[in-house]
Each structure stands twice: as C-alpha cells, then as structure tokens.
Design brief:
Number of helices: 2
Structural class: mainly alpha
C-alpha cells in the first residue's frame, strides 16, 4: 500500500504543476485578448446585413 500512496502523491504533485502551468498559459492568452471573455451576440438585423453582403459577393463571383 505504501507504494501506491507514493505513486498517488507523485501524481497529485505533477497534476498541481500542470494546473499552475495551464493557469500561466490562460493568463498569457487573456493578456493577448484570446481569453474566455464574454461572447458578443449580433442582432438579427446585423446578421441579415452580413448575410446579404456575403450573398452579393458570391453573386459577383459567379458572374465573373
């Protein structure tokens, strides 16, 4: 049993190290603006405007 306790202790120590490393990576990404911030939602009118613009681009590409 003592061997298993040692293995478990080692695994928990490694896990804690990885958690700290992930926290550092998350902080770096947040500083660069890639963090898990609030999601922006578009209104239906804005989505329609984008859709119409894309449809116009595809129609122009098909014509020539």
């Amino acid at each position: 049993m003592d061997v298993f306790k040692g293995v478990v202790r080692l695994m928990r120590k490694e896990r804690a190290q990885h958690v700290r490393e992930i926290a550092k990576i998350d902080a770096a990404l947040s500083a660069l603006g890639y963090g898990a911030g609030p999601r922006r939602t578009l209104s239906a009118a804005a989505r329609k405007k984008i859709s119409d613009a894309q449809k116009a681009r595809w129609a122009k590409a098909r014509r020539g």
